[in-house]
Write a structure and sequence with these properties.
Shape: elongated
Strand content: under 5%
Structural class: mainly alpha
Radius of gyration: 19 Å
Order of helices and strands: HHHH
Number of helices: 4
Distance between the termini: 61 Å
Length: 94
């Protein structure tokens, strides 16, 4: 794969992640960390286009993996309602 193809690939992946973050927000999830990491990726992509260094692409791909994991965590995160938990404990006699 050429360097230009790799840049195109990570750029497309970043756009897909942006759309996933948007959807998570619409679903009342909190993808804050993923969003912050994605902002970093956009900057790194621009830098990689100039530097043309393969290590920059590798770093971007690693960050993208981290973002994907953060988004999965945000998707599966359940809001904790302390009031409801206390009421449930009281009902159980705790």
């Amino acid at each position: 794969m050429t360097f230009a193809q790799e840049i195109t690939e990570v750029t497309k992946k970043a756009e897909e992640l942006r759309l996933r973050i948007s959807q998570l927000r619409k679903d009342d999830k909190d993808p804050l960390l993923g969003d912050l990491l994605l902002r970093n990726v956009r900057t790194k992509i621009h830098y990689a286009e100039i530097s043309r260094d393969e290590q920059d692409i590798t770093a971007i791909k690693n960050i993208i993996k981290d973002i994907e994991q953060e988004l999965e965590d945000a998707k599966s995160h359940k809001e904790t309602n302390i009031k409801e938990e206390i009421e449930e404990l009281m009902k159980r006699g705790g």
